[in-house]
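Table S7 (text form). Paired inputs.
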Amino acid sequence: MKQILIILVALSCLLLFSCSEDSPDSPPQDSTGKLFIKSTPTGARIYLQGNDTGKNTPDTLVNLPAGTVNGYLYLEYFDTAYFSIPISANLITTEEIILSEDLPFVELTWDYSIRSGGDSVQFSFQLNQDLLMDSIVVSRPITIFGDYTKDRYVINNQLFVWIDQNGYLVKYYLPLSGSAQQFYPKIDNYLYRIDVYGQQAHGYQSSFYSFYTQQF
């Protein structure tokens, strides 16, 4: 009799346990996770499984199925950064991505034209990308005896675009527009040197230095 009672109690407990698991009131187990993704620099568009999430870094993506998710970050002037990240259920995964700049080295293409019957010269240059100009220094002869002067143009990070709205290369001139003079005196057999300082207008806005020399 005692053994029968023990068996009945055990069956009752098993039945209660089974019922509690099948109860509609039991909360479902969450099988999703979250992804907090950030980048350097910030503001990159987040694409997941080939779709635009509508979010920019830094931000959190929610309700992601457990497992590996694939996507990429897009930011103008930077290489597209692809990622493959494992997601765990009920956890927040953090991912930080450093973007690589997709800009060429700064290059200035120089030229000149002789004016006023051969007595004056005007320099010109074109860019290979948008630049923020800080200053331009022109070292040039002023007499046939080798006396030199320096023309300093302090531009204070003014934007110099490399193409216009129609897609054509923009040409800039020295002396700069608005200067007191339009041309430089042309002195033969002496060196003209132009030093340019500034930074890239896009990407990480790295500083640059460039120079040009010409002798007539």
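Next pair, protein 2 of 2.
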Amino acid sequence: MLQGCTAPEEAFPDWAGDFGRQAPLELEIGPGRGAFALDHATKHPERDLVAIESRRSDCQLIRVRAARRELHNLLVVQGDAKLLVPRFFRPRELSAVHVQFPDPWWKTKHHKRRMIDVELAALFRQLLAPGGEVDFRTDVPAYFREASQTWLGAGFVRLPEEPPEVLSTRERRYAVTGQPVFRARYRNPEALTVAAAMDRTGRDWRDIRRK
């Protein structure tokens, strides 16, 4: 079973071989301790989910919990998603992408590390199948506004709002404390148009840091 990064000159991972079947393939970036990934995989046994997490301890925790639930449709990979995603997935191979509560990286010198930018959005336009969806959630208003502009600028179409099927641990906590959560889903249209060059990165937003 795949555990790490394929070298650039090697073939893409054989996901059907790793999961032991051919099924719709989804990706979650930054699952944290895995509450969403585990519940989503449980709710949708007909789908396969790859979760990429940078923290090794969280990867191990999710794997243990997935084994306890006997979830064979969830595979966790440790590493940097921005480096791994282009090496892991072929064009139009993904049916959905979940990006929930990415790190805001508040310090100016760290803005370049923010997950959602115009390059990533353009990449997902290529990797998602026609009709594939992006599920984006954050608790930072400025991140939500900038990411929305970024997804739309890449050619995605925003879908009507509806309650999420599965909540993350953070969302369950916020439901009690009243902290707002900003959610949106975007569909990859049939036509794969070439996005116009932008003079923005999608990373240069600012907001008041919540204490």
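The longest strand covers residues 128-138.
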